[in-house]
Write a structure and sequence with these properties.
Layout: H1 9-24, E1 29-41, E2 46-54, E3 61-69, H2 71-84, E4 93-103, E5 107-115, H3 117-138, E6 143-146, E7 149-152, E8 165-170, H4 175-185, E9 194-199, H5 207-220, E10 227-232, H6 246-254, E11 259-263, H7 271-275, E12 278-280, H8 283-376, H9 379-384, E13 389-392, E14 395-396, E15 408-412, E16 417-421
Parallel strand pairs: 3-5, 8-9, 8-10, 10-11, 11-12
Antiparallel strand pairs: 1-2, 1-4, 2-3, 4-5, 6-7, 13-14, 13-15, 15-16
Helix pairs in contact: 2-3, 4-8, 5-6
Length: 430
């Protein structure tokens, strides 16, 4: 049997308590750790959890401490949840202010006094920036950054002039879906839409993979959609963390159909918002954007119609005036032409009269001349002047060579016919 004198456990624990009290009493420490084994007693509003530290590479626990948040600490946790939108639960990294307490009955515990809101917000932003850097590095073919703007294959697509066929990714139990459909269906312009819902979970474990799967279904669908609409109603900030994940940011950036988001968060744009064609901050805003887009096209058509009408009226007035002026000019020209032609016809008529008289006078002179010539050539008158006609074989002879010697011929005078015989022919001018 040992010669040492044992002490009571309570004495030992009291010594431990005194030692810890002397070393840590009245002090508090800011500690970074991960929440595990979290439990919450609603009635007392107490939180019990383990604060653990893990190795960055191996994710193995290198230190842990049981921690409690009594009612005062619980109120700070409630404030943390309101500001960050992050539920206090297992798996989150926090910066907490704790005191070291030891009870002989309950052992060593850390008591939460406060929790740093900005640390968690900053951590989430760091994770978000890491995802953005990864997208730029691994998806440089269709994602690049110009200034503060991300240029992606999706936001460089052109929306159709009119959006009618819509693929809607939403939760069928959310009020956001009902709000979106209500705005579309009751629009004051009477626009009709074909909306094909692709229902899925939008929050919780596996939500990012589920949404990505629905986008792939839309890509493979036989319908040619004008746009894809991704909506989610309001909620805590952590409910929107799926929209800051690499898989959703990647598929949204390269999706071949324009994506319109209507995610009801109040903080900065999500990564998906930065990657898609158009981002709005609520389901109703997404619906209003689509209606406004279609309205702009209708207004452009109405403006073009009005422009055509006004231009047509202007052309009609211009050409009407031109026709009136042409009609007047034609009337003036026709009147002048008719007047000129009347003068020409009167002058021509006068000239024709003079020409007719002169022509008739001249023709009468010609006729008198030819009558005189004909009269002079009258055989009767020629015979009376001492001329004679010589007939041979019943024909008047002019050439004596045609009358042979000894031939019988007839010589006709004015009132006498002589029958003669040719005895001799002699040329007078030989």
């Amino acid at each position: 049997m040992s010669s040492l004198t044992p002490i009571r456990l309570s004495d030992l624990t009291r010594q431990i308590q005194d030692t810890l009290e002397s070393s840590f009493g009245g002090q508090s420490f800011w500690v970074v750790g991960e929440v595990t084994n979290h439990q919450y007693r609603t009635k007392e509003q107490w939180h019990f959890f383990t604060l653990a530290e893990k190795e960055a590479s191996a994710h193995t626990i290198v230190a842990k401490a049981e921690t409690v948040a009594w009612k005062g600490g619980s109120s700070r946790i409630a404030h943390f949840e309101r500001v960050t939108g992050q539920p206090f639960k297992d798996g989150i990294q926090v910066l907490v202010k704790v005191s070291v307490d030891y009870s002989p009955l309950y052992g060593l515990k850390l008591t939460l006094q406060d929790i740093d809101v900005n640390y968690t917000i900053g951590l989430l932003e760091q994770q978000r920036q890491a995802v953005l850097e990864k997208l730029l590095k691994e998806c440089s073919d269709y994602i690049r950054k110009v200034g503060d703007r991300y240029i992606t294959a999706n936001n460089q697509l052109s929306l159709p002039l009119v959006i009618q066929r819509i693929a809607l990714v939403a939760s069928h139990t959310s009020a956001g879906y009902e709000d979106f459909m209500h705005i579309l269906q009751t629009n004051s312009f009477g626009y009709a839409f074909q909306v094909d819902p692709y229902f899925t979970v939008i929050q919780g474990e596996g939500a990012a993979a589920a949404v990505r799967g629905k986008l792939l279904d839309i890509f493979q669908a036989p319908t040619t959609y004008d746009a894809v609409v991704l909506i989610r109603g309001g909620g805590a900030s952590t409910d929107f963390l799926i929209f800051d994940t690499f898989p959703l940011g990647q598929i949204a950036a390269k999706f071949p159909i324009p994506i319109i988001t209507g995610i009801g968060h109040q903080r900065n744009e999500s990564i998906v918002d930065l990657m898609v064609h158009t981002a709005t901050n609520a389901p109703t805003k997404a619906a209003e954007f689509i209606i406004a887009h279609n309205r702009r096209f209708e207004e452009a058509c109405l403006h073009t119609q009005q422009t055509i009408l006004i231009r047509t009226q202007q052309l009609f007035i211009h050409h009407s005036r031109a026709l009136t002026e042409l009609q007047h000019n034609l009337g003036t020209m026709a009147s002048g032409f008719i007047h000129a032609q009347k003068g020409y016809l009167a002058n021509t008529s006068l000239n024709l009269g003079v020409y007719q008289r002169n022509f008739i006078t001249n023709q009468r002179g010609y006729l008198a001349h030819w009558a005189s010539v004909i009269d002079l050539m009258n055989p009767e008158k020629l015979l009376k002047k001492g001329f004679a006609l010589v007939y041979y074989k019943g024909k008047i002879m002019v050439d004596p060579d045609h009358i042979p010697d000894g031939a019988d011929m007839t010589v006709r005078l004015a009132d006498t016919k002589i029958e003669a015989t040719v005895r001799q022919k002699k040329k007078l001018y030989e």
